Amino acid sequence: MRAQLTVLGNLVFVAVVSGCATTPAFAPHGAQKSARTTSTTQTQPSPAGDERDRQVLECLGVYLLRDPEFRMTMTSVSGSADARELNVVLHCRKLGGISFELASEDWLGDSAPAGFVSEDTRSDLTRRNPRPKGHDQPSFQHWILDRRVVMAEVSGMPAGLGSRRAFENAHPKAKGWFAAYLPGYSSDGARALVHAWIGPSEHGACMTAFLAFVGDHWEVKWRRFVYYA
Fold first, then answer.
1. Which residues make beta-bridge pairs with 63?
2. Per-residue confidence at 214, pLDDT binned at 50, 70, 90?
3. Bond before 24 cis per omega within 30 degrees
4. Beta-carbon neighbour count of residue 105 at 10 Å?
5. Ramachandran class of 19: left when φ > 0, alpha when ψ lies in -120 to 50, beta otherwise
């Protein structure tokens, strides 16, 4: 299935995204703290990701909340809700089974900023997201996120082709949702490559984003949306 690429994705964003700073911050060259964890049983999914992943996906969620082109629900399109009350939903389970090389032409197009599309970030993204084994779907539910990034189960993964109405009824203040693979990182840990499905969308839509660690926090530097038909 070929994508119809949106020109809205061919933009480079270099402004600092407020709300992305976290405490404590991840230091690319330093020791990173392990993610908050909870006790698990045989019936609970295993935890996914670490503190660095939490910061990156939280930053991306806050960014989407303020991105004027991320309008996936009637609430965000109509402007009927107070912007201060809006949120973005993060699918609570990590996705698996990705080969970035197979679809990078569609996902990146020709607009990605020089220096971000590196072999190490691509390889790390693929390495960290193998196909799941058995029925285990590792979960992000042990994370504590910005209150505007809501953790929830989204039906119809990986592309999220579930009911738009059901999602809007369950999350009346949401601009949309994103379901992410674990980020891929550059060898120095200062850049992150994220791929995610976004929705609700009738035929499926995805997003690719690059983030950089600046000072003591992550910033979204570029993102691209692709809508399928």
1. none
2. very high
3. yes
4. 11
5. left
Structure tokens at 83: 């912007």
How many residues make up the chain in this entry? 229
Within 8 A by CB and 6+ apart from 178, the residues are: 60, 61, 64, 88, 89, 90, 91, 196, 197, 198, 207
| 183: preceding bond cis by omega (within 30 degrees) | no
DSSP three-state, residue 225: strand
* Region at 53 (left for phi over 0; alpha for psi -120 to 50; beta for the rest): alpha
β-pairing, 87-91 vs 149-152, is parallel
The amino acid that residue 165 corresponds to is R
The CB density around residue 59, as the number of other CB atoms within 10 Å, is 25
Which tens digit of pLDDT belongs to each residue from 72-105? 998 776 665 567 789 999 999 888 887 666 556 6
140-194 per-position pLDDT tens digit: 989 999 999 999 998 766 555 667 888 899 999 999 999 999 999 999 999 999 9
CB 220 within 8 A of CB 13: yes
Q: State the pTM of this model.
A: 0.78
H-type helices in the chain, by residue range? 51-66, 74-78, 100-108, 119-127, 164-170
Segment 4-34, tens digit of pLDDT:
444 344 333 333 333 454 433 444 433 343 3
| 168, two tokens | 């809007």
Contact by Cβ (8 Å): 13, 222: yes
